């Protein structure tokens, strides 16, 4: 039996030959040239007309003209994003019970917020929790410092920003990310709870994303603690007086957070309301 060769691109009728072209419904191998009016396939994607590229994928791949635009295309970004997830999962998979601590990068040592972070980090480590922060200065540094000084696991998840100076000196396990959403996935995935210190837009973003995930059942119902009564009370009053009153959230949604000035109460709330799995084992 003689096998007939598959028609090549020069065997196709002009204009694509919709009625007589025996290969019109078959994807063309990637790299074939395409005449105007023919279907051009890039994997599962079909292109026609002006969208047919002037160069094949192989030509672009083998071209050595010093250009690197391909590393800025969306398909390439997908690979970068995938790589960031793999790196993050690989680095944190064996971390054990952890709590994410959020807060401002702008506060200085000696401020109330810094003191909160320092004490929270120490107490969490004493209870057997790893402490995960954004790895920056301010309250993040304080929580990492407290965990490290208590001989606990101190983790920093950094982010690529033009004004960031890198991970603070108290991070023992650090991972840097390009993409906020990958980084925030790590904060949630590996945490048994959240302690939120005073902070700005970034802190609010992390807080409300966490509350949304809990409210909608995307993650286990786990404890969220706000540290700083004077700082957070106006926000909670607005939530009760506006969001609840206008029917935007259920009255019980306000109970997703615990407000306190006491680091011991904050950590105790985490310990007594474990999100999933076994309780952390206290150090010593």
TrEMBL record:
This is Cytokinin riboside 5'-monophosphate phosphoribohydrolase. Signal peptide: none annotated. InterPro entries: LOG (IPR005269), LOG_fam (IPR031100), LOG_family_nucleotidases (IPR052341). It comes from the Bacteria. It comes from Kytococcus aerolatus. Its EC number is 3.2.2.n1. PANTHER family: CYTOKININ RIBOSIDE 5'-MONOPHOSPHATE PHOSPHORIBOHYDROLASE. Residues 1-10 have a biased composition (Pro residues). GO terms for biological process: cytokinin biosynthetic process. It catalyses: 9-ribosyl-trans-zeatin 5'-phosphate + H2O = trans-zeatin + D-ribose 5-phosphate; N(6)-(dimethylallyl)adenosine 5'-phosphate + H2O = N(6)-dimethylallyladenine + D-ribose 5-phosphate. It is an enzyme of class 3 (hydrolase). GO terms for cellular component: cytosol. Residues 1-43 are annotated as: Disordered. One of its GO terms (molecular function) is cytokinin riboside 5'-monophosphate phosphoribohydrolase activity. The keyword Hydrolase applies.
């Amino acid at each position: 039996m003689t096998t007939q060769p598959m028609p090549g691109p020069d065997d196709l009728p002009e204009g694509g030959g919709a009625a007589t072209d025996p290969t019109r419904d078959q994807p063309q191998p990637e790299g074939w040239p395409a005449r105007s009016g023919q279907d051009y396939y890039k994997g599962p994607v079909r292109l026609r007309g002006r969208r047919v590229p002037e160069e094949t994928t192989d030509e672009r791949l083998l071209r050595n003209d010093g250009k690197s635009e391909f590393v800025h295309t969306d398909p390439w970004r997908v690979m970068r994003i995938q790589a960031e997830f793999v790196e993050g999962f690989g680095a944190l998979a064996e971390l054990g019970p952890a709590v994410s601590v959020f807060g401002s990068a702008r506060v200085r040592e000696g401020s109330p917020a810094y003191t909160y972070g320092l004490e929270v980090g120490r107490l969490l480590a004493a209870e057997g929790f790893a402490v995960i922060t954004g790895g920056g200065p301010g309250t993040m540094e304080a929580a990492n410092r407290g965990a490290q000084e208590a001989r606990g696991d101190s983790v920093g998840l950094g982010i690529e920003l033009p004004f960031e100076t890198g991970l603070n000196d108290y991070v023992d396990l650090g991972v840097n990310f390009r993409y906020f959403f990958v980084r925030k996935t790590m904060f949630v995935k590996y945490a048994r709870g959240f302690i939120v210190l005073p902070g700005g837009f970034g802190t609010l973003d992390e807080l409300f994303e966490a509350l949304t995930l809990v409210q909608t059942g995307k993650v286990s119902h786990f404890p969220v603690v706000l540290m700083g009564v004077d700082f957070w009370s106006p926000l909670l009053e607005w939530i009760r007086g506006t969001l609840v009153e206008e029917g935007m959230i259920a009255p019980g949604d306000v109970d997703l957070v615990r407000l306190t000035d006491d680091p011991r109460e904050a950590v105790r709330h985490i310990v007594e309301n474990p999100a999933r799995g076994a309780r952390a084992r206290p150090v010593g």
